[in-house]
Amino acid sequence: MKDIKVQLQKKVYKALNKIAGDNEILSENVIVENPPKPELGDIAFPMFPYAKVLKKSPASIAVLISDILSSDDNVNTYKPEGPYVNIRLGRENITKQTFSDVEEKKGSYGFNTSRQNEKIMVEFSCPNTNKPLHLGHLRNDSIGESISKILAFNGAVVSKVNLINDRGVHICKSMLAYREFGGGTTPESEKIKSDHFVGKYYVEFDKWLKKNPEADKMARDMLLAWEKGDPEVRELWTKMNKWTVDGIEETYRKTGVSFDRIYYESQTYTAGRDEILKGLEKGVFYKDENNTVWVDLSDINLDKKVLLRGDGTSLYLTQDIGTAIARHNDWPFNTLIYVVASEQQYHFKVLFHILGKLGYEWADKLYHLSYGMVNLPEGRMKSREGTVVDADDLIAELTELAAAEIKNKEREEQVGNIDTTSEKIALGALNYFLLSAAPTKDMIFNPAESLSFNGNTGPYLQYMGARISSILRKYGNTEGLKNADLSLLSLDDEWEIIKLIHIFPEIVEEAGQELNPSLLASYIYDLAKKFSKYYHDYPVLNNGNKSLVAARAALCSAVRQVFENCFSLIGIPYLDAM
RNA sequence: GCGUCCAUAGCUCAGCUGGAUAGAGCAUCGCCCUUCUAAGGCGAGGGUCAGAGGUUCGAAUCCUCUUGGACGUACCA
């Protein structure tokens, strides 16, 4: 559709100049747009901008341009409508081309090469090992996974990386509380998912701290002991970290999240130190009387920032500098995208700037994909007030609701395995919900409403997919569909659907450019809605005309393929029955 | 204080680089299961696009200010 628009732009440009004669030269950048309603045509050119130069009314220009263009084109039709030239495209070629494209590419329909030869690293998730994942992590994971898939579908080579924050005072707090109150219990003995088991002691620590202010200092001491390699502390640390990581990995498996490489903070946290010292030698940084190393950021209108403490220990920022450099060595990327919440914008601004100062020419290829917070109707989630929405609980709840719905509709038999189907519905609901809002925006999770499966939701999309599958199952062998007579698809409703199928690759490209999965979410919802109305109004199988049945089945088949491909990009499992 | 971002229907969100009466879902109220699964379809009501200026033939969209909010501005991560 893009190239068609460009061609038409050129034609309109030429026609405009024909009217202008040699008086005026017009900008080649002719404005194109989509008409607000399908009845108005497929593509529109507003004529307002040329009124002044041509000394004619927009409406009369529209008439002239339409005439000129019509005389030279027997494929598309041009119609002046008020100040607009509205164009109806010849449907035959586009339809034929679109269908054969889908038929040929199948699972890779939508794939394009706009990001070919790019190596893109995507960092996301980055959990702490003191507690299980919550809803905020789920948004991070959804975005990270989706963006990675989208970029790969744009031809890039993508490497997904995770950085597990397994070091620091937070894990020491859980460790202390466990040592104090755990009494040698284990996740197995208590039959609690292992990350939740550890999280329980993190909460326990907070309670303890209220009665015993000493606890804070004890945690810091434990961290020091850890850094010194105290064997007892290390042993406990290893054990508890494993519990958490095992539990988190189980959640990853359930939500379809995976990584090409996992970094552990405990292994990388010292890596930045040498870089800072090198920078100090080069005079990029400076040291104060306490041996603290600083960077002056007044060149980007920011304050100064500590890079190394006086005792030589490193900070979050220090570590991230080291990690970035290590990553570039491990896998020389063209771009590194950090999927991290918006609250860390300042951090990344500073990080990128410092890497630039250190002379890494790839510093300007680092990008912070800053996504908004997930809030509750009452406001921010607060662990202290126990309002944090736990990831596993949420998924379990959604799964139960889906299972109840299946039973309620008496679909057990058709669905087959209720457990796996319910899980897929839960996942579809969750990912669609999290990805349908633009990443940059904060969003509100209203438990009551967000658990619904009706309306603009993942399950609605899955349901449409299941209906298409059902129709195609009833149709039988779909092999012959490539020979279907597509000219029978003459309804406007069919044309609207075909156009949507046609532009799918363009939407994929745009979503990649803008790093915005929500474009795909609203695209597929649009397609689902149009298809839903279409098959409701026009029988695919029971219309009494064998050729028409084949043509419509072919349309179903193409829509199904786009569903599958688009679904996979935004983490919605495709279901053949539900 | 300073910086970044945000403000569209009662609620949750769309609205592309400015363009034709501002769109969905939820909620409310009607209608539709003897035809491919009603997790569905159709219809109704509901908007001074926070407010005020400006640029433009034309602004929800761009610029300025005001108001209201989020986040940040730690030798936390």
Explain what this protein looks like in three dimensions.
The protein has 578 residues and is α/β, with parallel strands linked by helices. It folds into three domains: 2-89, Gyrase A, domain 2, CATH 3.30.1360; 119-371, HUPs (Rossmann fold), CATH 3.40.50; 391-569, Isoleucyl-tRNA Synthetase, Domain 1 (Orthogonal Bundle). The protein has helices at 2-20, 51-54, 58-70, 91-105, 135-153, 169-181, 187-190, 194-211, 214-228, 231-255, 265-268, 271-282, 316-330, 345-357, 391-408, 412-415, 418-435, 447-450, 458-475, 492-514, 518-537, 546-569; strands spanning 43-46, 77-81, 84-88, 119-123, 157-164, 261-264, 286-287, 293-296, 304-308, 335-341, 366-371, 374-375, 443-444. Strands 6-5-4-10-11 form a five-stranded parallel beta sheet, with helices on both faces. The protein starts with a helix and ends in a 9-residue tail after the last helix. The mean pLDDT is 92. The structure holds one RNA strand of 77 nucleotides.
